[in-house]
Amino acid sequence: MSVLAMAWNICDLMKSRTEFVKMAQLIKSGEAPGSFGELCRRYGISRKNGYKWLNRYKTHGPGGLQDQSRRPHHQPARSTEKTEQAVLDLRESHPCWGGRKLRKCLSENIELEVPSASTITEILRRHGKLNEAPAAGPGKFQRFERESPNDLWQMDFKGHFAIKKGGRCHPLTILDDHSRFNICLAACANETSVTVQHHLIDAFRQYGLPHQILSDNGPSWSCQKRRLACSWLEAWLIRVGVDPIHGRSYHPQTQGKEERFHRTLKAEVIETRTEWEDLEQCQSAFLEWRPIYNEIRPHESLGDEVPLSRYRLSTRGYEENSGKRDMREHYQEGEIQRKVDHSGEISYLGRKYYVGMGLHGEHVAIRALAEKHSSVSYGWKRLGAIDLTIKKGERGQLVPLKSLTVKAKFESE
Question: pTM for this structure?
Answer without folding.
Answer: 0.67
